[in-house]
Amino acid sequence: MKNTLIQKLENLEAEAAGQLLKGNSEDELYQIKVKYLGKKGLLTDILKELGGLPQEDRPQVGARANQLKEVLEGSYATRLGNLKSEALTQSLSAEKIDVTLPGISAPHGSIHPISQVLSQMKDIFRRMGFDIYEGPEIETDYYNFEALNIPKDHPARDMQDTFYLDSEHLLRTHTSPVQIRVMEKVKPPIRMVAPGAVYRKDSDVSHSPMFHQIEGLVVDVGITLGHLKGILESFLGQIFHPGIKVKLRPSFFPFTEPSAEVDIECVLCAGKGCRVCKQTGWLEIMGCGMVDPAVFKFMKIDPEKYTGLAFGIGIERVAMLKYGINDIRLFYENDRKFLEQF
Amino acid sequence: MIGSFWNSFEVMKISYQWLKEFLPSLKAAPKALADKLTNAGLEVEGIEEHQFQNVVVAEVRTRAKHPNADRLSVCEVFTGKETLQIVCGAPNVTAGKKYPLALIGASLPNGLTVTPAKIRGVESFGMLCSANELKLSEEKTGLMELPDSAKIGAPFAEAMGFNDTLLEVNVTSNRGDCLSHRGIAREVAAILNFKISESKKHLFSNIYKLEDHVKIELKDRAGCRRYCSRVIKNISIAPSPAWLAERLTKLGVRPINNVVDATNYVMLKLGHPLHAFDHRFLRGGVLVIRKAGTSQKFQTLDQQTRELLPEDLVIADREGVVALAGIIGGANSEIRNDTKTVVLEAAAFDPVRIRKTARRLGLQTDSSTRFERGVPVESVKEALDELTSLILELAGGEPSDAADLFPGRKKPVTLKLRSARLTQVLGNPPPAAMVTLLLKSLGLNPKKDAAGWKVTVPYYRFDLSREIDLIEEIVRLTGFGGIKAILPRWEARPLIESAASRHEDQLRSFFAGRGFMETLHTSFAETGEVALKNPLSAEMGALRNSLLPALLKVYQKNRSTNEPSRYFEIRPVTKKGFVEERRVAGIIGGTRSPLNWRGAGDSVDFFDGKGILTDLVAFSKIPETDFTAGGPEIFHPAQSVTLKSGGAVLGFYGRLHPEILARAEIAEEVFYFDIDQARLTELWGRRPIGLKPLSPFPRVVRDLALIADRDLSFEKIVTAIRKRQVSWLAAITPFDLYQGEKIPAGKKSIAFSLVYENAERTLTDEEVNKTHFGLVEDLKRELGVLLR
User: Fold this and answer.
1) In chain A, whose CA is at the least distance from the CA of B7?
2) Looking at residue A65, what is its pLDDT?
3) ipTM, interface predicted TM-score of the complex
4) Contacts with A249 from chain B: Cβ below 8 Å
């Protein structure tokens, strides 16, 4: 009798385990569970026969029944878990999207390359402790020429490319007049840069009738050519790359003496020689010099006490080198295909 | 010029061979010499090999008549390597003679490139050249016959001594003394510490007096510092010999005849412009250096009639002007083929006077360029003698004695150079011994004393007049390499920078972040309030007074209606009286977002742009801003606003007037704003921020939907709500606007979300309801609105 019951339990376990594996939905699985383990289930039916057993056999059979129940409930839970995770996987994969489609952007804006380079330069000079001054683009002959030691009827005026508005007013040909305006008002020490638009009557691949430059001026006791070199090397290293080779070459400007053209090692071929640097390995990048005592006299600054350094650089030239632009006119044509690249 | 400093220079072509005549010990190759000059401030911009490439000495072996052309010959020409068949048109081609032959591939000075050709059916493999074709003569006189001694097959330039290298030197405006071969040779001598071989002194056996032929009267002594003259009679005008023509031609001067060429040659050699008059045409036997006075018109050598002003410096005879002093001669006294007697002029005119006249007449000549920059007064007579000697050699004749009027004689300039000053300017100057050496090599004859040096400036270095000029000379010769680069030390203090400059980058980032591309235009426009006196073109005749036209053009040019199209610019505009006003302007059109796979976006409308400006004033923290309806005439009259801050106008925004758009050929709606940058950046960040306590209590949100007259503005409703001053009304936000079938005609439905919030306690439904419905009743009464 006892063995018959245990046999029945074992049969039931085998059958139920098989059925639970076949259940293919949560619902179906539940029905199987109820069929075997429910209050009116097959297990209960078997346990009803327990009463017919001798007292001493009952615990053994009961324990077996409990074990069976635990095993089947475990199988049920495992199967249920599997079904659930399969369902989730299925529903997630149904939500598949093409993630390679482009993101939806806001309208694309850009900042003009000239503004970008000017901004970088202003930032460099700010960090080096220079004041930033701006001045009018319409200047008088006095500020643009006379006070800068470029007298009327002198060959130094020879670049016949000044735009005049009337006999006295003109479009500034450089930002140097800003320095004169500052020196009129501010006593040394002076350390300043003047960025802005300037005008010369010229138009071709490398000349625009309006272009931009930034000019610097330092006036103090003890300012030397050594400081000029130091400032330029630092500035050019920051705007191009640290340690860039810088070479000064004597030149002539009416408002500085000694004067120099500044060459940098060609940024396109690293000084090896290419088409842009005409195989020289060097690029002419800016002008500089020590302030001419004649300019100080105009400004009533004592040239015996003070010395000064000055420099000027064209923004378009730098932007062309930095971004590989070969026609200056592109800056002013405002083609969207150009603008959107910056 | 690369847009840095203001600088001006003349390009002077220098013959390396000619330099060697001054500097026999010169060994440096042209390229090395060019580098030296460049590093000493005389930038060599180009080096040109001047070699008549592929032109060789060849011998005509046979000559036969061309079968199909009477005037042509077919020649067998031997090049030393091979015999070529050449068709030749020159009548003087002779078998057994030697001529320059341009081989296939040769580029001739006249621009012609020689290629194989079939001439009237006969093949030709090169070209026999005339002196004219080689630019060695102006005359067209058949093939250039070469001496028998010329070696067949030798390069033509070598055989003739014409091989040379030309240096293109940029001579800055302070170095007038370098506009000659001797000037450059002196520089080279200083740089390399050489001696320059000075020209020999000329002695002429003059058998008659200048005065017998012409009397020189120097009336304008301020205009002429020195005037030298001499007559040569019985000369024969002829073309110059090939050596002279070749030298002038390669240096860019057109050969004319032996006398005129001699004046140009000596100018290129010594830097003194010279002139020769035909004595026949000098009326009254005088040459007067004077002001033009009332002589009003004058025909110059180039056959142009020039208007003179009384102050112009002229050379005149008894009857009138014969030359514009220092600029150009007159047509009335020029050298002709039958000229027999010439009157020579060597002078030093006042630079400013020459420049004024030359500029005014737009007449820049080799002569005026040199006089403007100054010529050395001391060597005027030397130039006259050099010229005399050359003319005697080329054209024969008998010279007179010379006139030498020299009112501008000056003592040599002496200068001091203090060691202390040298250190003050340079930082670390070269050692004293080196400075002495450099001063010596410049011909400055330095005398060292305790304070420094005393120097005497040689007559030709008239640019050296101050101590600083000497310091520059030192640096120029040593180079900048020895100067130690150091950074200055200075005190920490707040830096000075205008608000506009400080905020410009933020402004740019703001607009770029909202889809605007920054544009940049030149300030020129066809019309404006301020016109240019000398514009580049009529379309660039004035300074623009608005950023709108340029932005409209950019918009139109780059237009695309299925993409966002937004551009801005930050630039000054020019108003009457030369007033510059910085503006920030932008144009907005196209769609709200870039074309994408979700489909084309909606087009922007008025409120997209207005929203950007609302964001801008919030971003830049401009205090007390508001928009009021209405704006300038460029806008649609019913779709524009004026942006103000505390009553001051900041700018305008609106839909551009359809007529303006039609003129720009734009059909869609386009919006534009134009802001006063100075005012905007002055107010930047001025809106105070006082933190309101963050309420821990829940907010109560009530919607309010009203039916109102269509013309009742949003602003009026909000004002009416605000008037009740409910302290815990935190926000009023419209969230729906409807006009259409579902509501009566002439009405609109507008819905608001009202947020109530109290920082101290939880608001009860009851009190919110009481306030909210009280508000509704007030609105009904005041504005005649209905609750929807």
Assistant:
1) A253
2) 83
3) 0.86
4) 38-39, 41, 43, 480
